[in-house]
Design brief:
The chain is built from 4 helices and 5 strands; from the N terminus they run E-H-E-E-E-E-H-H-H. The chain has 149 residues and is α+β, with helices and mostly antiparallel strands.
């Protein structure tokens, strides 16, 4: 693809043991809207989730954990397209929001435990905004006008 943008990724180190972080990561789909567990490799501490998006096939959230010490864990989060690659700034902006929500979800679960239902956690981690949907509709309509207009 011409003009493809590298997959957005972020790495942080947190002061929690890897076993506690594993539990939080494995359960982020219980906190994040439109997030679905896909696969895990417990040997390599890697997890994959899919995230549905309006007007696209969605994205994958790839998470890798590394134990730095008994009390520190490195968390790597990378967002990739389910089909194709990122080639517009709007897509990268949305991917960065996925990264932020992923870290917020991990923090929420470490702090509060695994929630009984998604709705009790979503308000606290920022999943309640409807602006992305509205912007997606406007962009979709604009694309249709450009194609057929």
């Amino acid at each position: 693809m011409i003009g493809a943008i590298p997959n957005p990724k972020k790495t942080i180190t947190i002061d929690f043991p890897i076993e506690q972080v594993k539990v939080a990561v494995r359960n982020i789909d219980k906190v994040m809207k439109f997030c679905h567990f896909r696969e895990e490799n417990d040997m390599f501490n890697s997890y994959k989730f899919s995230r549905s998006e309006f007007l696209s096939l969605g994205a994958f959230i790839n998470i890798n954990l590394n134990s730095i010490s008994d009390t520190k864990t490195q968390v790597d989060v990378e967002i990739s397209r389910q089909l194709g690659a990122f080639d517009q700034w709007v897509e990268v902006q949305k991917a960065n929001q996925h990264i932020e929500e992923t870290f917020n979800s991990i923090a929420y679960i470490i702090k509060n435990g695994i929630p009984e239902s998604k709705s009790e956690a979503q308000d606290e981690i920022g999943n309640k905004s409807s602006w992305p949907v509205i912007i997606g509709i406007v962009i979709g309509l604009w694309v249709l006008v450009e194609i057929f207009g």
